[in-house]
Amino acid sequence: MKTVKTVFGPISPEEVGFTDIHDHVWKSGGMEVREDKDFGIENIGKSRDELIRYKKAGGNTLVDMQPIGVGRGINEMKEIAKDTGVNLVAITGFHRGSLYDKAHFVYKYTEDQIFNMVLSEVESGIEENDFCGPFVKHSDVLPGLVKCGSGYYKITPLEEMLIRIAGRVSAKTDIPIGTHTHVGTMGYEQARLLLDAGARPERIMIGHLDRNADFLMHKKVLDLGVYVQYDCVARVKYHPVSDTMDLIKRLSDLGYANRIMIGGDWGRASYLQSYGGEPGFEFIPKYFPDMMREYGISDEVINRIFIENPKEFLAY
Ligand SMILES: [Zn+2]
């Protein structure tokens, strides 16, 4: 039977409920945090409070999208989720290439070696120290999806290899894939690479696409049969909320509602209420469905996007 992998073990897809498909409860260390301290989300108690707010607002499942080598903390995630009632999902795979120092193992090992490393997490559990060595210790947590990514308007040879690895791991195990596009670019190209590597379209979710709120490009990506992930839903510093709403409305009117998912991606301490920021994890469950209704988006579509799509996508 297909299940959704949470940090406390597999659950039935029926238990998934309202889902934030891309967020962050823990980021400690790694290049992103080193370059900008605001990316650090490193307080277990505060992150747990943030999850409790999410649950109170109607949230039920949340995917922490921190992959290998950029500050993922599987043991911290288990502590954070404890007693919150939230199904927290951890992941495997890699981020965009520029977040890995030239000394990192991704630059040293062959494609097959890294493929086997990612596969070992899917089969045996997430490695407790992100394969930083010298010892390998698999936790009892299976990853909920495999990540890959690329930079602004380009896919480097390293990124192409890591994208191919994600596609191959998914082809072998059926694990879903979530990508990082930079400012919403190269999503179509990522999807093509993943499909070429053998991944099935319904296992692929192209991330951050509404950062580049280009209707025709989104339609072209969706016509490959993959999911699009919107996560710039209240970042008015980038664009008005109406840009994302327009995309959801137009695309769902054309029949694409079964391929859209939404995440907060509140990946900075200054976005989290428990760290003194705004608007926090609660924003999406508390306000966004009502905003969608005001925009003329039906309850059926809202239910599809927040509950039915994540339930189908995350189960493997
Ligand atoms: Zn993120």
Task: Furnish the topology, listing elements before pairings.
Elements: E1 4-6, E2 9-11, E3 19-23, H1 31-35, H2 44-56, E4 61-64, H3 74-81, E5 87-89, E6 91-93, H4 111-124, E7 145-149, H5 157-173, E8 177-180, H6 187-196, E9 204-206, H7 215-222, E10 227-230, H8 241-253, E11 260-262, H9 283-294, H10 299-314
Parallel strand pairs: 3-4, 4-5, 6-7, 7-8, 8-9, 9-10, 10-11
Antiparallel strand pairs: 1-2
Helix pairs in contact: 2-3, 4-5, 5-6
The structure holds zinc ion (ZN).
Can you give a write-up of this model?
This protein has a 6-stranded parallel β-sheet with strand order 6-7-8-9-10-11. By secondary structure, the chain is α/β, with parallel strands linked by helices. The longest helix is centred in the middle third of the chain and has 17 residues, at 157-173. The chain has 10 helices and 11 strands. The N and C termini lie close together (8 Å). It is 37% helix and 13% strand. The protein has one domain (4-314): Metal-dependent hydrolases (TIM Barrel, Alpha-Beta Barrel), CATH 3.20.20. The chain binds zinc ion (ZN). Residues 22, 24, 65, 265, 267 line the site of zinc ion.
